[in-house]
Design a protein that fits this description.
It is a single chain. The protein is built from 3 helices and 16 strands. The chain is of the alpha+beta class. The strands form 3 sheets. Strands 2-3-4-7-6-5 form a 6-stranded antiparallel beta barrel. A 6-stranded antiparallel β-barrel has the order 9-12-13-16-15-14.
Length: about 280
């Protein structure tokens, strides 16, 4: 869904990276990476990184396009570059409505959910598993029961209850922990158990883009601390990948679930909610 707005400060923020796109000829564009230094209701100041305005454009006004990515929101707005701009300092005024798009593949959130993966090696085998499971009513049903901060999946056709694990769940892929790493470009058949708005299993094929023993990076530290306790192993691997096959309906279910979890988290942090995942 696209949003048209003149509330520029919601989507173009001081300190964020932006791109200034200048047309130099028919179909030829100069793209300058910038940092937003100052912002008002009608204009902003940009500091250009790595490059500078063309010398022939200094002292004149001319149109350009300013774009930015904030989380999973992509913003684009026509602007006029002011004649008082010089080299790496650019002053622009907004020249119309900003168009804001939700980039579904970028929306993501750490969640605690029951989660299963199977290394099928090849895409064809993984897709075969996913399609068969998605079509089987027995693979869709489970009973969510409270478990710690989250829930476990019970009543799974005679299977043991499936406990929640920490997953960085996204509209475009997932990141999770395992004991052993997977081969890069291998394919996993995923089952993701969601309790909201009703119990549902989402199926997808994941292509592995990164899988290696844990390294002390900020994004992985939370996963490592949790996995050491849960997996009971000294060796912890972090695996990340993107969906190579997922039905549009299932992707939308994931996105709605992530947005609901983000909303609950925001409410809890402001004292306006229960804080339940």
């Amino acid at each position: 869904m696209d949003i048209s707005t003149r509330e520029y400060s919601k989507y173009f923020r001081v300190g964020e990276m932006a791109t200034l796109k200048i047309e130099e000829g028919q179909g030829v564009f100069l793209e300058l990476s910038c940092i937003i230094a100052q912002l008002s209701d009608i204009a902003c100041e940009l500091v250009v990184m790595y490059d500078q305005l063309p010398a022939h454009s200094l002292g004149t006004e001319f149109p350009a396009t300013l774009t930015t990515m904030i989380g999973y929101l992509y913003g684009e707005c026509p602007v006029i570059i002011g004649r008082n701009s010089f080299e790496q300092t650019v002053f622009v005024r907004f020249d119309g409505e900003a168009s804001i798009r939700i980039m579904r593949n970028y929306i993501r959130q750490d969640v605690l959910i029951p989660f299963l993966y199977e290394d099928a090696r090849t895409f064809d085998k993984a897709k075969e598993l996913v399609v068969a499971r998605r079509a089987d009513p027995r693979s869709a049903g489970f009973s969510p029961q409270p478990y710690g901060e989250s829930f476990k999946a019970a009543s799974r056709q005679g299977e043991e209850d499936l406990l929640p694990v920490r997953v960085n769940l996204g509209g475009g892929g997932v990141r999770f922990t395992s004991v052993e790493p997977f081969q890069r470009n291998s394919h996993l058949a995923l089952q993701m158990f969601l309790e909201w708005p009703s119990p549902r299993v989402v199926h997808a094929v994941l292509v592995v883009t990164r899988s290696k023993p844990f390294e002390q990076t900020p994004e992985d530290r939370t996963f490592y601390n949790w996995a050491r306790i849960r997996l009971k192993s000294r060796t912890i691997s972090i695996t990340a990948g993107s969906y190579e096959y997922i039905e549009d309906e299932d992707r939308q279910v994931l996105i709605d679930y992530i947005k609901e979890m983000q909303s609950r988290g925001s409410a809890a942090s402001s004292g306006g909610g229960t804080g339940e995942p």
